[in-house]
Amino acid sequence: MGRKFLVLAESRGGQLRNVALEAVAAARQLAGDGEVVAALLGDAGEDEANRLIRHGADRAVIVRHDSLKQYTTDAWFQAVLQLKEREQPGGLVMGHTALGKDLAPRIAARLQSGLVSDVVRIEAEGEVPVFTRPIYAGKAFERLRADDSFLFVTIRPNNIPFLPGDDSRSGRIDELQAEIRDLRAVVREVVRKTASGVDLTEARIIVSGGRGVKSAEGFQPLRELAEVLGAAVGASRGACDAGYCDYSMQIGQTGTVVTPDLYFAIGISGAIQHVAGMSNSKVIVAINKDPEAPIFDIADYGIVGDLFEVVPVLTEELRQALSAK
Question: What does 225-266 look like in DSSP terms, one character per residue?
Fold first, then answer.
């Protein structure tokens, strides 16, 4: 027997984030033959609601209020509680993103429910779901059985594949006019410091630089490699602290945690703080002139050499190989 699950589907600039579709897939797995209801609280509309349905949701709810167009904890918190009251789900799924990490604990506290956070795999033992999540900065994993009457789960991006789109699927799209009161903060404008390009948290390929790039200009070869691969550009905390790039690019325990299919660690020594943010990448390629650099201990492939000599050659070889396809 299934249960109803509510999915909080994140969007950005009116477009669904991949983690929204991944959350639908996770909810579909947990719901069994129960209903999956996807909720859009941001600035996305009916096109994106239909996309959620094509990828596994049974129904979608668009929650309307001017205060929800830009994320604030208070406004989204109030809207989610109203959604919960209206839909009466048996579980809630959302992404373990910056938004999710901010909002989920507060919701869990108000609902007095448990919270299984940062889930990378969902299995079943009989009818009881089992969740796998990293602990100790990714050095180990724990498996949690959860049979609570209300299941609250956040999933790490890029780990649970979303379901293929099915154009034959259809479902009802409802609207809810939220009542938002007594906001302590209102967002008037968002100024993004990150350059346009691939989102780090959803990138399948990341080219990341450390102190070894030596300057802000030293990131240019990495950007050229990223352009050839359609990748995002990241950085270690050391590169950010040195002023070579903005902190929005930082990958690590105190930055962004990423799980791409392919991760290039270029001029990065492999400090524990950085490794905690990228060690779950599927394939890691390290380029460093120090053969004793700790990054080689976790790399699948390593190149010992000067990055300013290696990266341009690698970029050109990849450009030719990809253009020949």
Answer: HHHHHT-EEEE-HHHHHTTSS-GGGBBSTTSB----SEEEEE
Phi first, then psi, for residue 111 (nearest 5°) are -80, -10
Contacts of 54 (CB under 8 A, 6+ apart): 165, 166, 167, 169
Tally: H helices and E strands in the chain: 8, 17
Question: Could you list the residue range(s) of the whole structural domain that residue 14 is in?
Answer: 5-177
Q: How far apart are CA 153 and CA 160, in angstroms?
A: 13
Amino acid identity for residue 189 in this structure: E
Whether residue 189 is contained in a domain is answered as: no
Condensed to tens digits (0 to 9), the pLDDT of residues 272-298 reads: 999 999 998 999 999 999 999 999 999
Whole-angstrom distance, CA of residue 220 vs CA of residue 212: 13
Q: How confident is the model at residue 62 (pLDDT cuts 50, 70, 90)?
A: very high
User: Would you call 220 helix, strand, or coil by DSSP?
Assistant: helix
The reply to whether 295 falls in a domain is yes
Q: Quick check: 195 pLDDT over 80?
A: no
24-44: string of b/e by CB count within 10 Å (b at 16+)? Answer: bbbbbbbbeebbbbbbbbbeb
Supply 272's token pair. 């524990």
Cα–Cα distance, 242 to 224 (Å, whole number): 21
- Same domain, residue pair 83 and 23: yes
Rounded-to-integer distance, Cα 67 and Cα 75, Å: 6
Give the start-end residues of each E strand in the chain.
Answer: 5-9, 11-12, 15-16, 36-40, 59-64, 91-95, 116-119, 121-125, 128-135, 140-145, 151-155, 173-177, 205-209, 232-235, 262-266, 283-288, 301-304
The kind and range of the H/E element at 4 are: none
59, pLDDT greater than 80 = yes
What is the spatial distance between Cα 69 and Cα 186, in angstroms, rounded to a whole number? 11
- The answer to whether 154 and 104 have CB atoms below 8 angstroms apart is yes
Q: Domain tally for the chain? A: 2
